[in-house]
């Protein structure tokens, strides 16, 4: 994507549909007069009085314990410099978003309009009673050092300047791992640090704590190498001033083992890299642009171990890996501060985690086949679910061991389980879906490309590398809409009504007629049919001119299903097709079936649908835990509808003993783990979190998914068609651009899976 396009996209992202990235949502009921009397006057007086009696009760009755202030004065915003408090707000809101999605912490951004250290400290102290923790952000050095030191001394809640310690923790973990790969010892390596600000000083101090030697370090600020013979050095810079009689970065880099960049973009040249020692470790962490471009660095030195602060390259060394999890651990034991022991514990936990086998979901999320500890993987990825499981407990334990925890954890298993639940509601399925599609994009026909939303979706998938679209529809309209969308990429356009495609028309019509000539189709009617987009598009897929197709945006579902079934038909050995919807809910993703095709399946059909749904869940990286739903529980009703579901479960238990499936079961027992376990301890689902729901008939499935979608505002992916001979998927009438994009990713993944199976057969 061009820089200009990226700029525009970033601005639209922040402006629409409502300005900003954060909003506040109530956590208590508020619909009745009774609710309001509790939420506000008179009921609210009771917790006020309890807190007045004992301040600690504020943690019991308010959101303080999970609320972190992200405070900046805008004096060192990323590597953009002193751009002021208002201009820092998008970054602070961004940190709030990351606190929420990674660690379920409510982060509120506060921008303070002062560069005066005393006034800043006073302001933070005065608002501190509101918060469980204070994350100081993007405040320039040397003021940042004094601000943090004094606030830590004067407040009894965790205070951390993230640019100092978050960065130090993450980079130290990556550094220790990189040294291991380079087979070098921290005591021996020579280190060049570009930058002498908040981040650089704190990182270098931590490396010293891990054994780096002062005489091996050269630090530079905006004026060049910081030398002992310089005048007016700040205390922080004095600690790292060198005896060496050198002045420039170029001189410092000769023979160096390590470069740490926490300064500004593009100050390191390929020549400087070439002058470094063997297996150089280069962490160019300035944001948004590193001290040297990643690709240039990799091209320059094959033996480099390279990291940046950016998410678009391997080895993202960015404090996003730290602050959500460090604060989570500190808040959960109500620590009075974040001390050295807690930081060290976080470093070790991060370094250790990198060397553990990487879960498949992380590979899928990043479009990798097999991430393993090595030059391109020296630090975990931010979307690694294990971070929330591993880092906060390590931090919490260190807080307890070092005596700063006011609410020690007693049951670690329960704590870990709570941590897992905290990460359940983000939209990782969508992420998985897109990354997986991007790993091997396929040619997808957009059968209704002459509709603005469909074309917009095609543009997004093209630009994001999710698919190679083929635009099917009226050519003149598509060209006009493309202009409107500034979609100038050269993409194939196929107009079934145009003469250009006569050869294909005849070929497709003949093929279609051959397969249906004994079912009343004439060659003439076949030719007429090929002028219809769904017949033509489906034939493109059948004939291998495309890998998949999506349609259904502008017509009712049954009208689109008919041609698809006629042309594509069922896969070999499959008795019926069905559809699955993935609902992104607060409790995590739920796979629902059959939402669109089989009106009243019998027991055997229900068993088939269940098995196909389980396969879909597995494809997306989830272990299916399946409830077969009914209005009754395990034999409680003699009615044939309940018996049908019971029989389907029996068939499944017999045919696939590894499948985690049970029923018949009511919805509340299926979704409520505790309820389920207490009443039906014998069930295969007892003690497990159900993620797949198979309904007894189409009505119940379809009504449920639409209700979830509308009332809960749950995002839905699907309906995903299963059982067809090719990757063809039909959206619901009027699907949104986002839904079309997701469906395209589904079609791509489906095509990838088919290709894999085909190749596996050939190699057999
Ligand atoms: N990847 C990550 O997780 C993180 C990255 N960072 C990045 O680190 C950088 C610094 O942030 P922070 O420490 O908070 O900011 P500060 O303002 O505290 O420090 C900036 C430092 O960079 C120095 N500097 C400026 N120009 C040059 C130059 N040409 N050569 C060498 N040093 C130079 C300044 O020198 P002087 O002292 O003379 O003014 C100062 O010491 C930013 O780019 C930021 O995005 C920060 C935190 C986390
Ligand atoms: C990542 C970060 O905090 C910074 O660049 O300032
Ligand atoms: Mg920062």
TrEMBL record:
The keyword Metal-binding applies. One of its GO terms (biological process) is malate metabolic process. Residues 19-152 form the Malic enzyme N-terminal domain. GO terms for molecular function: acyltransferase activity; malic enzyme activity; metal ion binding; NAD binding; oxidoreductase activity, acting on the CH-OH group of donors, NAD or NADP as acceptor. Coiled coil: none annotated. The active site is at 95 (proton acceptor). It comes from the Bacteria. NADP(+) binds at residues 77-84. InterPro entries: Aminoacid_DH-like_N_sf, Malate_Decarboxylase, Malic_enzyme_CS, Malic_N_dom, Malic_N_dom_sf, Malic_NAD-bd, Malic_NAD-bd_bact_type, ME_PTA. Pfam families: malic, Malic_M, PTA_PTB. Gene3D superfamilies: 3.40.50.10950, Isocitrate/Isopropylmalate dehydrogenase-like, Malic enzyme, N-terminal domain, NAD(P)-binding Rossmann-like Domain. Keywords: Metal-binding, Multifunctional enzyme, NADP, Oxidoreductase. A divalent metal cation binds at residues 137-138, 163, 287. In the N-terminal section; belongs to the malic enzymes family. In the C-terminal section; belongs to the phosphate acetyltransferase and butyryltransferase family. This is NADP-dependent malic enzyme.
């Amino acid at each position: 994507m061009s820089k200009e396009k990226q700029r525009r996209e970033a601005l639209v992202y922040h402006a629409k549909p409502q300005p900003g990235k954060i909003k506040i949502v109530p956590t208590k009921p508020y619909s009745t007069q009774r609710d309001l009397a509790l939420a506000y006057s008179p009921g609210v007086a009771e917790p006020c009085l309890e807190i007045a009696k004992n301040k600690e009760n504020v943690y019991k009755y308010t959101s303080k314990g999970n609320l972190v202030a992200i405070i900046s004065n805008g004096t060192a915003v990323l590597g953009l410099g002193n751009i002021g408090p208002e201009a820092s707000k998008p970054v602070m809101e961004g940190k709030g978003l990351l606190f929420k999605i990674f660690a379920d912490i409510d982060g509120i951004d506060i921008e303070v309009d002062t560069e005066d250290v005393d006034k800043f400290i006073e302001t933070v102290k005065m608002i501190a009673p509101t918060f469980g923790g204070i994350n100081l952000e993007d405040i320039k050095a040397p003021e940042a050092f004094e601000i943090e030191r004094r606030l830590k001394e004067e407040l009894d809640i965790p205070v951390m300047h993230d640019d100092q310690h978050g960065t130090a923790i993450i980079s130290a973990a990556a550094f220790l791992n990189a040294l291991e790969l380079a087979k070098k010892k921290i005591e021996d390596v020579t280190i060049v640090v570009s930058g002498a600000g908040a981040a650089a000083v704190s990182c270098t101090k931590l490396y010293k704590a891990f054994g780096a030697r002062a005489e091996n370090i050269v630090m530079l600020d905006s004026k060049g190498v910081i030398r002992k013979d310089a005048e007016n050095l700040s205390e922080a810079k004095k600690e790292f001033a060198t005896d060496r009689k050198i002045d420039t970065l170029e001189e410092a880099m000769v023979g160096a083992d390590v470069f740490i960049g926490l300064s500004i973009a593009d100050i390191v040249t390929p020549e400087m890299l070439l002058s470094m020692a063997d297996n150089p470790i280069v962490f160019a962490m300035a944001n948004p642009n590193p001290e040297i471009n990643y690709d240039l660095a990799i091209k320059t030195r094959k033996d480099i171990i390279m990291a940046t602060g950016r998410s678009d390259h391997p080895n993202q060394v960015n404090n996003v890996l730290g602050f959500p999890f460090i604060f989570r651990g500190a808040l959960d034991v109500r620590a009075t501060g974040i001390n050295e022991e807690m930081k060290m514990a976080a470093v070790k936990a991060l370094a250790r985690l990198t060397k553990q086998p990487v879960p498949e979901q992380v590979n899928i999320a990043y479009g990798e086949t097999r991430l393993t500890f090595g030059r391109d993987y020296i630090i975990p990825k931010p979307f690694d679910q294990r971070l929330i499981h591993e880092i906060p407990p390590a931090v919490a334990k260190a807080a307890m061991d070092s005596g700063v925890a006011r609410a020690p954890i007693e049951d670690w298993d329960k704590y870990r389980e709570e941590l897992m639940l905290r990460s359940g509601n983000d939209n990782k399925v969508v992420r998985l879906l897109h990354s997986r599609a991007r790993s091997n994009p396929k040619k997808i026909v957009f059968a209704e490309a002459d509709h603005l939303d469909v074309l917009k979706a095609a543009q997004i998938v093209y630009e994001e590398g999710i698919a190679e679209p083929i635009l099917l529809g009226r050519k003149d309209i598509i060209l006009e809409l493309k202009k409107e969308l500034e979609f100038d990429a050269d993409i194939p356009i196929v107009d079934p009504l145009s003469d250009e495609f006569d050869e294909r028309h005849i070929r497709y019509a003949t093929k279609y007629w051959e397969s249906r000539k004994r079912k009343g189709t004439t060659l003439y009617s076949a030719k007429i049919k090929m002028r219809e987009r769904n017949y033509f598009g489906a034939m493109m897929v059948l004939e291998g001119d495309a890998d998949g197709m999506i349609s259904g945006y502008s017509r009712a579902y049954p009208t689109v299903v008919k041609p698809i079934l006629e042309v594509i038909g069922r896969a070999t050995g499959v008795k019926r097709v069905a559809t699955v919807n993935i609902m992104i809910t607060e409790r995590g993703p739920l796979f629902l079936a059959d939402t669109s095709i089989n009106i009243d399946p019998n027991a055997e059909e229900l068993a088939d649908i269940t098995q196909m749904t389980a396969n879909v869940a597995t494809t997306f990286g989830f272990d299916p835990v399946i409830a077969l739903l009914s209005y009754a529980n395990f034999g409680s009703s003699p009615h044939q509808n309940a018996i049908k579901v019971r029989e389907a479960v029996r068939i499944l238990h017999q045919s696939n003993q590894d499948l985690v499936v049970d029923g018949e079961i009511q919805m509340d027992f299926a979704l409520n783990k505790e309820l389920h376990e207490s009443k039906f301890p014998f069930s295969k689902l007892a003690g497990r979190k159900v993620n797949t729901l198979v309904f007894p008939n189409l009505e119940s499935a379809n009504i449920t998914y639409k209700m979830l979608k509308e009332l809960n505002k749950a995002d839905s992916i699907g309906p995903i068609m299963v059982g067809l001979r090719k990757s063809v998927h039909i959206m619901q009438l009027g699907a949104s651009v986002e839904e079309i994009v997701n469906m395209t990713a589904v079609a791509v993944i489906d095509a990838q899976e088919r290709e894999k199976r085909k190749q596996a057969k050939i190699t057999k």
